[in-house]
Description:
The chain is an alpha+beta fold. The chain has one domain. The chain is 54% helix and 10% strand. It has eight helices and six strands, in the order ααββββαββααααα. The protein has helices spanning 2-37, 41-52, 80-92, 107-110, 117-121, 123-141, 144-152, 156-172; strands spanning 53-57, 60-63, 67-70, 73-76, 98-100, 105-106. It has a four-stranded antiparallel beta sheet with strand order 4-3-5-6. A two-stranded antiparallel ribbon has the order 1-2. α1 (2-37) crosses α2. The longest helix is centred in the N-terminal third of the chain and has 36 residues, at 2-37.
Amino acid sequence: xxxxxxxxxxxxxxxxxxxxxxxxxxxxxxxxxxxxxxxxxxxxxxxxxxxxxxxxxxxxxxxxxxxxxxxxxxxxxxxxxxxxxxxxxxxxxxxxxxxxxxxxxxxxxxxxxxxxxxxxxxxxxxxxxxxxxxxxxxxxxxxxxxxxxxxxxxxxxxxxxxxxxxxxxxxxxxxxxxxxxxxxxxxxxxxxxxxxxxxxxxxxxxxxxxxxx
Length: 213
């Protein structure tokens, strides 16, 4: 019995460290993905916080990897397993428009680019895909502000509100130390379609990849 208490105490003591590690995953991988795809790293991290920001102690807000948004309601989980169990249930119930992970990728529009939900929520792949998506949006618009708007919505008013929020977060990161990045390598996932989505004919706005308003 005493040994059981010791094991339980050790697990409890380890929880803050596990939480701290999870809090670093999104932004560390986001910074690396930004470098790979030519996205300004501070912009990438700000968007990550805008999408999945969670208070992690001492008033700090960090992007959180085990995050889901279903029908406008956000859910934060302590582990990947808990988040995946929730998302699998949502999908089994016939819902396909839900957002996944660090960068809140919408399953309806982006899910077919991943082999599984578990791959989609993985911070390295989630951020890599989002960085490439932002890079594509920049190629389309020639402007990072417009790319940021489009990441959320092509509706002008929604995009403007989103951009303002990202700018506030980005301004608040000015005094933070430089985020370390993961070892560099090529893109982590490949896109199924060779043609950029905006060059595909017949796509109305509702068919464009977008985040919920």
